[in-house]
Design brief:
This protein is mainly alpha-helical. It is 83% helix and 0% strand. The protein has one helix at 2-77. The radius of gyration is 36 Å and the shape is rod-shaped.
Amino acid sequence: MLLPKKCSNVNLLNEETQNSTAMAQEIRGRAKEVGETSRKSFESASTLAKQFEERLAESIENAKVVSSIEEMANVISGNCRADQPLILKCIN
């Protein structure tokens, strides 16, 4: 009678080991997916940050050009005196 009980315990242990192996493989697969998703999200965020930085720099340069054009327009129209410091140039 001991022999069948030992076989039963071995079979149960083998079944539990197989279940544990399957769960470990499933967890490993999910972890890989999460890692891949995280990597893609990081790359996307980095790309967006770079694009924002480039657009911001371009906007700053455009604002400088607009400011220069405004200054020139004021000097041409006689509203500003080019020989005065910038803060005193425009007389409204």
